[in-house]
Amino acid sequence: MPTDRQLPAEDLGPRWKDLGREPLPYETSVPGVFAAGDVRLASMKRVAAAVGDGAGAVRSVHQYLATI
């Protein structure tokens, strides 16, 4: 699943323009939905990498929640 910078422009439709921001790290094409670990496109498929992804995703979730 592509996230943040991996998202193609066609996945960043009107809902993103209405928000006035780009996806946060680990955020999917659906605002407020985050992905970490093996489900991410081009992930390393390693437990340690998934743990790091999860920690990064939690930071992005906190950042997202602060805006709503």
**Number of beta-strand segments:** 0
Shape: flat
Low-confidence stretches: none
Task: Write the H/E string, N to C.
Answer: HH
Strand content: under 5%
Q: How many strands, what sense, and barrel or not for the largest sheet?
A: none
| Global Rg | 12 Å
End-to-end Cα distance, whole Å, is 25 Å
What is the residue-mean pLDDT, rounded to a whole number? 87
Explain this structure to me?
- With 68 residues, this protein is mostly helical.
- It has one domain.
- It contains two helices and no strands.
- The longest helix is centred in the C-terminal third of the chain and has 19 residues, at 47-65.
- The protein is flat and about 35 Å long.
- The protein starts with 13 loop residues before the first helix and ends with a helix.
- The model has no long low-confidence stretch (mean pLDDT 87).
Please give a quick description of this structure.
With about 70 residues, the protein is mostly helical. The chain is built from two helices and no strands.
Question: How is the secondary structure organized here?
Answer:
Blueprint (H helix, E strand, L loop, with lengths): L13 H6 L27 H19 L3
Protein name: FAD/NAD(P)-binding domain-containing protein
InterPro entries: FAD/NAD-bd_sf (IPR036188)
Organism: Streptomyces canarius
Distinctive features:
68 residues; FAD/NAD-bd_sf
